[in-house]
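Teaching note: in complex prediction, the entire set of molecules is handled at once rather than each chain in isolation. The prompt given to students was simply: 'Predict the structure of this complex.' The entities are:
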Amino acid sequence: MSEEIRFPVEDEQIAALLKGLDDGLQVPPEVTAAWKQAIRSESLKTENKKPKKQNILRWVGEIAAALLLLVGATLVWRSFGNSDITVPNTNVPAEKASEKYVFYTKTASVDSALPTVYDKDESASSRTAADKGYGVLEDNFEEASDDDMIIFTQSSDTVLEGMSDFEENETPTESGFVYIGKLDIYESDIPRAKAHLETIVNSVESAYIESEQTQLVSGSSTVSGTIRVRNEHLDELTEAIGNKFASSEIEINRINVTHDKSDLSDKLQNAYELKDRLDKEIEFAGTNADISLYEKLQELLDEINDYETAILKSEIDLEYATLNYTINGSEGKTAAVPATYGSRGFGGFMKDLGKVSMVMLPVIALTALITMHLSQRKRKKAQ
Amino acid sequence: MELVRLAAQGDSDAFEKLVMPHERMMYALAFRMCRNAEDAKDCLQDSMLRIYKALPNFRGESSLSTWFYRIVNNTCLDSHRRRKVRKAESIEKLSQSGWNPVDPAPGPQQSAENASLKRALSAGIKTLSPEIRSAVVMRDIQGFSYEEISEVLEINIGTVKSRISRGREKLRGFLIASGEL
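The expected output is the structure of the full assembly:
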């Protein structure tokens, strides 16, 4: 009978019994092979799951796509909002301007329009109307737009009728109307502009510079003056000015002064008649004439003098047009080179694209950052 | 450390070189922690895979071997929790349930008593709870220090000693009941 081995009942004894329990233990080859195979399989899986390197081109493509969307949206938006691309022509040729402002009234006779003090022959001026292109001016003529260099205004008393054909020797009735114009020239080189204007004035018959002065306004100099020219030569003058100065504005006002002239004449006539009566009274009174008569006579003579002066001035005004001119040193009203559709469109588009981009870029940047962060987290988790 | 770096990058050859020196000890732990050799094989394989995947995150706070054994122990515990391990009351019942302990050192010179004792010890170890078992196996069979066991099991040394003591006491009772003592 084999005796069973009895060990002392001690913890250390158990430990001693356990010690070396696995000394002969060897890992079976199939176990080793199994885990090695498993590792290799896992290694291959990991290789396939490795995140691809960031494709810079992919990012560039995405950014390009985003920009394309922005550009497209801006174009579409602008096409709806771009209603008028026509550029107004702010530089009306002078030849067109000169056709606008001259209108003649047609009356039964020249005499009826002239005051009695005038000699018809002296004040009348001949003119061929056909080649000047005079036309009908309606009472409610169209108001000149900003595009036009010539603006025609008229007083409420103006009576205008069309005169399509004149006999060559027939004198258009100009008496009763005065022409007062305003000329603005915009040139940076004022002395040169002055010289040119003088040349033009000297080249036009009957034209002359009545007065001129130079002023300094807000740091820039301005030359102003008055040009007088016979009515029949006003066209020629304005045309020459328009041709010479690209940046200029002319405004001609035609004022009917017939009533004023008539009124002056009547007053003068009355004054004459009163003077005649007073002369007779003084002659009759002789040396006993009251001093008050002499005082009244003096007042009357002064009055007559005033009337005659006024009438004389108005006669000149009737014959000579007045053009008050100003040469401005700034080019503020220079007609800008009309922007083409393309340049206006491109400039405006870039402004709009900038505005849209400024609004959208923070959103795009934030989206990109979040996407990158999520991608990185995903890659870490995969590891 | 170069080997660790390469293995962490997924180099399977480098990984094999890294773990091979520890394979036997790892297998021994798995062998003692699992029900049978087949489970031990699965446990070891799972452990290797876990180590391979977790190697990039190894921060070097413990030794590499300690870390390996920890993973093996945890893998076996996870496996144990997934299965209901019937507590065998005797070697006969263990055998009937399919337990077939591998004789770790079969040899012609081994006496019958030794073989019987070893079988009894193996059977007794199986009766221990996994937590106690790992402590006893690592201490008494594999020769780990209390500190090493503490690191592997992530428990303090006092708990390690307590578990070991309780394990030995249970084993003694089992051996007495089996007639080996």
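Point out the following to students. Chain B touches chain A through 50 residues (CB under 8 Å). The two ends of chain B are 48 Å apart (CA to CA).
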